[in-house]
Amino acid sequence: MLGSLRFRLPALFLAGVVVSGVIAAAVAIALFQSYARQQLLVKLRREANGLTQLYERQAIAANDTGKHTLRFAPLQLEKATGDKIFYVGGDAFPGAGPTGLRQLPQNTVDWRSGHTRTFEFRPPGFNRTYLAVQQPLRLAPGSAPFGALIVATPTTEITSGLRPLVERLGLALIGGIVAAAVLGWYLSRRITRPVLALSEATDKISPGRYDVDVPEVPGKGEIGHLAQRFREMASRLSEAEQQERNFLMSVSHELRTPLTAIRGHVEALREGIVEDPAVRAASLDMIANETMRLERLVGDVLDLAKLEAHRFTLLSEEVDMARLCEQAYAAFGEEARRRGIDYEKRFEASPTIVTDGDRVLQIISNLLSNAFRWTPDGGKVELELAATNGRVSVAVDDSGPGVPPQERDRIFRPFWSRDDSGTGLGLAIAHELAAALGGSIELDTETGNGSRFELSLPARWH
Length: 462
Hints:
Layout: H1 5-65, H2 74-81, E1 84-89, E2 102-103, E3 117-121, E4 130-137, E5 147-154, H3 156-160, H4 162-205, H5 222-270, H6 277-308, E6 317-320, H7 321-330, H8 333-339, E7 342-347, E8 352-355, H9 357-374, E9 380-388, E10 391-398, H10 426-436, E11 440-445, E12 451-458
Parallel strand pairs: 1-2, 7-9
Antiparallel strand pairs: 1-5, 3-4, 4-5, 6-8, 9-10, 10-12, 11-12
Helix pairs in contact: 1-4, 4-5, 5-6, 6-10, 7-9, 9-10
């Protein structure tokens, strides 16, 4: 359960929310503390500036009149503001008596520099740290300071408003975790449901059941794409299994027919039934022809296996394409005459290319064989040769039934036959050979109006 995707997805989602919430809270607290500190400093500077002006006016008046009476009420000010007021420096009112200011040691701060400063310190006799602003005191503008007022507030004031903020952030984090848990649970179920369905379909496919119902996944996300590809894979596997059965049946038939004929003639010859020399010669010719037929079938299967394994050896030689096409054309002349097929050739060029001539001849022969197979008696088959833009093309046109749209993607697949007859290897081998020679085969067809298979090869193949 803990290792399942249904658990790990929401757990990871929640962990991300918690980490994000903690980071956001830490940033918010740091920003709050910085803001609270700045606000306290603004307040302390304002108070220190006002107190300094009041203190300086009284000090100047006392020096001008000679009356050393200082009317200053620090305790009342401290009660009104909640801050502490300290003094450090020399005695500006000799003999005036206590001023009510808390006197700090001379070395507490550098008051002689005349600068306004902010700092933190712990005054003598106090057990708390204070945030303070130091304001210099002068009897005349630009004169040397005779002391400094220090207005301070406990640093705990910075964090006094932090508790409500932390409480609110905690509530927000808990709410976010709850919302994330609900959303994570929903997303987990939405994501894992089709994944589990695909897993169940995989379990059914693994023993060989390809008629599985792959669920439809709404939307166009990755899971929907996976489901669609899985559905296509199951369909292709089912089709491959069907093709394998068809191949075994067709190959068995193709093998059984010549083997039966060979066995019949061999038994007749062995038992001495055939005594006429002419009949014996005919039987031997029949055995030789059927043997060649078996050899071609086995050769086709081996060729396809080598092509798919990329272990096929190709030659490189100069090939007269017109002569080669003439050879392929002549091989089907007798069949065309016998079936009354209008068999034509049209050679618009006579190129010589560097390629494997035997394999090119095999491709053209396979295309012509396919054309004659599907062209009805009295129909038309045409062989064309042309050369343009550095490429050589050989096209085979027929007047057969054409290829339906739903079968055009499968016509070059091995062991697939439109009428479940034959081995389904001719076009597959032609297609693979064309690719191995650096070319391609294109199909142009229209249902009911025949087909055109065009082989395109580079003028020079490497």
